[in-house]
Design a protein that fits this description.
It holds the Pfam family Amidohydro_3. It comes from Zhouia spongiae. This is Amidohydrolase. Helix 10 links the parallel strand 11 and strand 12. Helix 12 packs across helix 14 and helix 13 packs across helix 14. The protein has an eight-stranded parallel sheet. The protein is α/β, with parallel strands linked by helices. It has 14 helices and 16 strands. It folds into two domains: 297 residues, TIM Barrel (Alpha-Beta Barrel), CATH 3.20.20; 126 residues, Urease, subunit C, domain 1 (Roll), CATH 2.30.40.
């Protein structure tokens, strides 16, 4: 896969026109999603129903050994008790919901977002000039959080609706655990998720945004770890807490003691960033129960390594089954996603911020992130574009690399989108409109 040495500004400038309609102010984004999500609290909860004229991918077409097209056919799909019960040759005469030839794909997943603290659903606010780096932002948050907490449940619900409007039925959300909000941010987000439980799924990361020791978040992290969260989070152990080993040992032990996964925000790009990655790899190898449950979010240091070191670290990450969650282009960094995936590292993506005091460029669409990645890494062929879909779905694709149909199958969860497109490659390239979202068999819109 070809890599291009361009800056994020240059890249986004060149591709912004293709997505201008979704880079909107909160007011406009709300208007965009409200019409689709009017039924979010009154969804169609039939335990059993059938869809006809559903387009599914069935294989690749080849010419001189190259994939030149994707074969599709229309099918009838029966859904019962939240699962796909049966897939049959299309019967247009059956009494069923008409999918009108739209393409069915696995629903999308946003695997790195902060649902608990956002301006979304309120008036527009641009980011204020940053002072003092991440520690300066911590000081700003300490001032802002008490007021933000007053409406955080409502705003989380509005942001969930935005994600749904872009085809996502699931998110991994980091949630602040620190002395200012204590566990209040977690409690407020859990209320929002309870309200949306029939239409949206989530897993939560207890995130010490203000450092584990920098603001003495230890007792709050321990308390959060005993709740039904899924991951223990972390933040730049060297630059925030001043010690890689002390912070990482605490994080790893807390995860082990409470049978949780790990998801670390790592922004550091120098020697400390690399040491943190290598230290985490060693800790996971020492505790194999953490394999497949440990992730590094951002991990910008990978974009600063030379090619040989990228290959070495990618192989070590794969052996430890540590995944990378990337927001794709960021600043002047181009993450080595093709190298990571070549070695078998699981790579996922997310919006991170939608509109808050950190960033205002979030769209709510992981399909947009997937399109950016395809452009950035030169994936322009039918095969290459179709493979990129896994970034939006966090893994599953209708066809495997050999063109064998692997999704959907009877027994799969009925978490699907219906998209106005002919195949996965078109969806990624054209960012095709999502016309319907189904979660656990519930028709969201």
């Amino acid at each position: 896969m070809k890599e291009y040495n361009i800056t994020r500004k240059e890249f986004i400038r060149s591709s912004a026109l293709s997505f201008a309609g979704l880079t909107l102010t909160p007011t406009l984004m709300n208007a965009q999603s409200d019409s689709r999500n009017q039924t979010a609290n009154s969804i169609k909860t039939k335990k059993r129903y059938t869809l006809k004229n559903v387009r599914l991918e069935t294989g690749f077409e080849y010419e001189d050994g190259e994939v030149i097209a994707t074969r599709t056919r229309l099918f009838t799909v029966e859904i019962e008790d939240g699962k796909i019960k049966k897939i049959s040759p299309n019967n247009n005469d059956t009494n069923a919901i008409d999918a009108k030839g739209m393409l069915m794909l696995p629903s999308f997943k946003d695997m790195h977002i902060h649902l608990d603290k956002t301006f979304y659903g309120d008036k527009w606010q641009a980011v204020k000039r940053r002072r003092g780096g991440v520690k300066g932002m911590i000081a700003l948050e300490q001032q802002m959080l008490p007021e933000m907490l007053k409406s955080s449940t409502y705003k989380a619900e509005k942001m969930i609706e935005l994600l749904q409007s872009q085809g996502s039925s699931f998110a991994r959300s980091h949630v602040n655990i620190e002395p200012t909000s204590k566990l209040k941010s977690l409690e407020n987000l859990q209320k929002a998720l309870e309200h949306k439980k029939d239409v949206f799924g989530a897993e939560l990361v207890a995130f010490p945004q203000h450092g584990v020791f920098y603001t003495d978040s230890v007792s709050y992290m321990k308390e959060a770890a005993k709740t039904n969260i899924d991951f223990i989070g972390g933040l730049d152990p060297y630059s925030i807490d001043g010690a890689i080993e002390k912070t990482m040992d605490f994080t790893v032990q807390l995860a082990l003691d409470n049978q949780k996964g790990i998801d670390i925000h790592l922004h550091e790009t120098g020697e400390s960033g690399l040491k943190t990655v290598e230290y985490l790899i060693d800790k996971v190898q020492e505790n194999p129960e953490l394999k497949g449950k440990t992730y590094l979010s951002h991990c910008f240091v990978l974009g600063r390594l030379d090619k040989a070191k990228q290959e070495e670290i990618s192989e070590k990450l794969a052996n430890a089954q540590i995944g990378i969650i990337s927001t794709i282009p960021f600043g002047g960094l181009i993450m080595p996603i093709p190298t990571l995936t070549k070695h078998g590292v699981k790579v996922m993506t997310g919006n991170d911020s939608i509109v808050d005091h950190w960033n205002t460029f979030g769209t709510g669409s992981v399909l947009y992130k997937t399109n950016l990645a395809a452009q950035l890494y030169g994936q322009v062929t039918e095969f290459g574009l179709s493979r990129m879909l896994k970034l939006a779905t966090a893994g599953p694709t209708p066809l495997d690399d050999k063109g064998v149909q692997q999704w959907p199958k009877a027994g799969d969860a009925a978490d699907v989108v219906l998209v106005e497109a002919g195949c996965s490659a078109e969806v990624v390239s054209r960012m095709s409109p999502v016309r319907s979202l189904i979660y656990k068999g519930n028709i969201v819109f």
